[in-house]
Design goal:
21% strand
Length: 217
């Protein structure tokens, strides 16, 4: 018996990218009436090789959506159920500055509703708001991320990840191309860790300090 093909995607149960067996695949393609635009799509039933969770993936591309960096048609991936569906705000988010809190809330809502382009724009705005709050000197986001890493608020690996993805770039922010869910969830994880480090952990540390100073009688 032939083994099913595999693909690595974000698992909704494992919460990180895992190998998935493609249990069923339906290819589809076509073109507009005048033949100017061609499109391709794959519709797949997937099973996680780690937890056996079943999900659905659709991947599509067309001759109109061309990657400006490679010149190849851009691939769009949608996963069902949405990988952030029902994800709540992190505990302590009420400690964020008002503007940052609003951007975070709206970004999370966008991702929870599978609005990937809006979610990508929101994540970029969220990191920019942190840079503004931390008074980084850089005028572009990439340099601001470097400053956050130099100050220890981001790890070098986290900064490298953010640099690697186009939706964090100045030009890419205007391309309106949705990144993959895996990229967005990873970026959201990094952003939430950054927000915890700046706005939540200091409050927790202060509460613990006060308890040490005032032990129970």
């Amino acid at each position: 018996m032939t083994k099913p093909a595999r693909i690595k995607v974000l698992c909704r149960s494992c919460k990180h990218p895992t190998n998935h067996d493609i249990l069923f695949n339906k290819d589809d393609s076509g073109e507009t009436g005048d033949g100017d635009i061609r499109w391709w799509a794959d519709h797949q039933v997937l099973q996680c090789c780690g937890c056996d969770d079943i999900s659905f993936r659709t991947s599509h591309s067309d001759t109109e959506s061309v990657d400006p960096y490679t010149g190849m048609p851009e691939e769009f991936e949608v996963l069902y159920p949405n990988r952030t569906d029902g994800r709540p705000p992190i505990d302590g988010h009420e400690n964020f500055p008002q503007k940052t809190r609003r951007i975070y809330s709206e970004t999370l809502k966008a991702l929870n509703h599978n609005a990937l382009i809006l979610g990508a724009i929101g994540l970029r705005a969220l990191i920019e708001s942190v840079c503004l709050e931390q008074k980084t000197k850089a005028k572009v986001l990439a340099k601001g991320i470097d400053e956050l890493a130099e100050s220890g608020l981001l790890s070098k690996k986290q900064a490298k990840f953010l640099h690697a993805h186009r939706f964090m770039g100045n030009v890419a922010a205007h391309e309106m191309i949705a990144p993959k869910a895996t990229e967005l969830v990873a970026a959201l994880d990094i952003a939430e860790t950054l927000l915890k480090t700046i706005y939540i952990l200091p409050e927790v540390a202060e509460v613990m300090k006060q308890k040490v100073k005032q032990p129970d009688a």
